[in-house]
Amino acid sequence: MSLLSVHTIPILEDNYVWLIQASNSQAVIVVDPGDEVPVLAYIEAHNLIPVALLITHHDYDHVDGIKPFLAEYDVPVYGPADELIPGMTYPLSSTEQLSVHADFPSVQVLDVPGHTRGHIAYLIDNCLFCGDTLFAAGCGRLRGGTHEQLFSSLKQISRLPPTTKIYCSHEYTEANLAFARAVEPSNLDVAERQEKVASLSQLGKATLPSHLALELKTNPFLRCHKTSVIGAVKQQVSERLGDEQAVFTALRQWKDKF
Ligand SMILES: [Zn+2]
Q1: In Å, how far are 37, 94, 97 from 141, measured between CA atoms?
Q2: Ligand 1 centroid to 241 CA: how many Å?
Q3: What is the CATH number of the domain that holds 144?
Q4: How much is the pTM?
Q5: Among 12, 32, 188, 232, which residue has the fewest nearby CB atoms (within 10 Å)?
Q6: CB under 5 Å of ion ligand 1: residues
Q7: Domain tally, the chain
Q8: What is the pLDDT of residue 2?
């Protein structure tokens, strides 16, 4: 039984803001309010009490709602020390354990650079809020970090317990699975997930959260050691692929053009 429930608020084109609620409490932690309007409306409609903002990285679609949100609710803002986050009160570095509020279990901060140079993620109970680092069946593009950083950040995430729930920031699952299918056409788990996700999308439902065990079976970026992925990447590049890192880099570059 999880101690937490997580509310899903779609914002902008295809982003999600996550509201983490402790059991038997109206207190909520808000993750990455890129737009405050739908978040404030949701909080008011459900009589919730925001107690903190957790920010994963500095992109506008994660931070633009912070200042107007703070005008309504004066709460602490946690974010990556290495990035400029509006209104940030607690700059964080990796492996910190936070006590955000008495109603919540402690929050573990993970350093997951790659999409951006200072990107961090938050692990609360068995829920990982990973921003634009790991997506369902995909991963973030490079917008400041390096392939090496992103590869090692994804490795770090893949070592978490397989039951870890993955709350990422975008609804990219369907497009990501189309790429996963191109990389591994005979991966039956990918095919099965594609069907499930297509029916959810048709109903206009979120395909998230994911969980790590499913990502390990269907996300090509976590499968760069598999012969099927290595073989597919080899057909795309002319140079030799020395190691798993090289496979990952070539796979990310392939996805950029896909
Ligand atoms: Zn981003």
Answers
A1: 27, 21, 28
A2: 28
A3: 3.60.15.10
A4: 0.97
A5: 188
A6: 59, 132
A7: 1
A8: 61
